[in-house]
Amino acid sequence: MEESTELREEWTLLLWTTVAVLVPVLITLWCSFQRPKRKVQLKDLFRKSKHGWHYTDLFNKPTYCCVCSQPILQGAFCDCCGICADEECIQRADRILSCKEIMTQSQTDGRFYHQWVRGNVPLASYCAECKQQCGNQPKLCDYRCVWCQTTVHDDCLSSLNDDLCDLGEFRSVIIPPYYLYQVNKLRRRHPDEYSKVFDLSELPPSKALQLCTLLPPGSVRVLVCGGDGTVGWVLDAIDTMKLKGQDQFIPLVTILPLGTGNDLSNSLGWGAGYAGEIPVEQVLRNVLEAEVVQMDRWKVQVVSKGNYFRKPKVLSMNNYFSVGPDALMALNFHAHREKTPSFFSSRIINKAVYFFYGTKDCLVQECKDLDKRIELELDGEQVTLPSLEGIIVCNIGYWGGGCRLWEGMGDEPYPPTRVDDGLLEVVGVYGSFHCAQIQVNLANPVRLGQAHTVRLVLKSSRMPMQVDGEPWAQGPCTITITHKTQALMLYHSAEHTDDDDSSASEAEEPSADHIDTASNTQETVTVS
C-alpha cells in the first residue's frame, strides 16, 4: 500500500514537473508564431499613420499609454513627437493625438507655440511655471512640449504666462515646421525623389542630402551614425553635390562611431566607439561646439598590368591604403561576413575574428618577401625597401582600430600627422606579429617617408589590398594615389579618446587658420 502511494506521488510529481516545463514552452512558441502576424498587421497600420510609430516588446523605463493612461510594458512609440500607446490604443491615438504639425512660414506669423503632449515626462525635470519638480507622479499628470521639451504641471498649464515656444536648447539643430511643409510639397510632386523616411539600406545618401538645398547655404550639419565606411559613402555623395554645382549647400560632416575600427572618428576626436555611454543631449552639444576642419580626400587609381585599354579602378580614400598582412586580415574578415552577416553584429566579435586571422597569418606568412614583388615611389623618387611584408599609406593619425602609426613610440622626432596638410605618411611592417606589436606599443613601424603623390608597382603574384577597410585581391598592377579634394568635417577638441597621449592629441588638432566660418550653423540632418 505504501509502495503504491509513493509511486502515485512520484507520478504526480513527474506530471506537474512536465506541465511546469511544457506550459511556458508552449506559450512561448504560440507567442513566437503570433508575433510575426501581429507585426505585419501593425506594419500596415503604421504605414497609414501620421505618427512615426515604432513597436517595442519592452519599454526600457516605466511608461504609460497616452490614450488610456494605463501602464504598459510593450506597445508603440512615435519617434517624432514621443507619444506612447499600447496595441489596442494605437488607432485611437492616431485619431485624437496630433504629431508635430507641418505648417507654412506665413502660418507661424513669426511666432511659434508650444505643442503639449501629456505624460511620460522625464524624471528630475522641472515645471516652467512653478519651478517645482515634474515627472514624479505615477500617472499622466504632467505635460511636455514636443518641440522644446519644456515640462509643466497639469495644474500649472492653464496659468502659464507665455505659451510661445523658442524650440529650446537645441533650437539650432531642430528642423522647423515650415521646412517640413516645403518637403511635404516636394514629396507630393516628386515622390521618387523625396521620401518620407530615407533608409540607407534602400536609398543612397545622395537622396537625403538633396534636402540640404532647401535650407540656407552653409547651415546644415550631417551626423553620420556608423563606421568609417559609412562616412566615406556619405562623403562620396557630397562629392556628387559638388559636380552638380551645389557647393554652397554642402553640409559639415560629423561622426557617431558605430563601426569596428572607427579610426577616422578617433582622428577627429569623436572617440573609438559609441555604446550609449554619453547621453544624446551631450552628443548634440558636442556637435554644436565642434570646430570645422578641411580633411584631405585622395584618389586611388589601380591599373592592372596588361589591361591598359580597360577603364582603371578608381577609389576614394579618407583613412589609408595598404597592401600586406592587415589587408589580408580585412579580406578574410570581409569574405566570412558576406557569408554570415548576422554573426558579425558585435564590435567585440569583429575584433576577435580579426585577431584570429592575424594569428593565423603569423604562422602562414602569405605576404612574405613583399619588397621583392613591389616598387614604391614617393613624389617620383624610388624608395629602397627593406625586407617587408606590408606597406601602409596613411592620411589620418589612427590606424588598426586606435593605433597612432606615424608618431609611434620612442624619442626620435617625426613631423605630426594632419588631416589637412596634403601629405600622406607611408610606413612598412614586417608581418602580422609586427602589426600586433605596434598596436600594443611594443614596436615602431618602418617609416618610409611623407609625400604628396604615392605610386606602387606590383610586379608579380596576387596580393591583398584595401582602401578604408574595403579589401580585394589584386594581381600585377600600378597604384597611383593623388589628392582629390577636401571635405568639411567637424573636429571635437574638448576630449580625446587616445590613451593618455596629450601630445599626440595636440598633433592631430588643426590650427585656427583652418577653421571655416561656416561653423555658424542652423540645422542638423542625421544620416544613419
From TrEMBL:
Residues 517-528 have a biased composition (Polar residues). PROSITE patterns: DAGK (PS50146), ZF_DAG_PE_1 (PS00479), ZF_DAG_PE_2 (PS50081). The keyword Iron-sulfur does not apply. Residues 497-510 have a biased composition (Acidic residues). It is an enzyme of class 2 (transferase). Residues 495-528 are annotated as: Disordered. GO terms for biological process: glycerolipid metabolic process; phospholipase C-activating G protein-coupled receptor signaling pathway. Pfam families: C1_1, DAGK_acc, DAGK_cat. Keywords: ATP-binding, Kinase, Lipid metabolism, Membrane, Metal-binding, Nucleotide-binding, Repeat, Transferase, Transmembrane, Transmembrane helix, Zinc, Zinc-finger. Belongs to the eukaryotic diacylglycerol kinase family. This is Diacylglycerol kinase. It comes from Sinocyclocheilus rhinocerous.
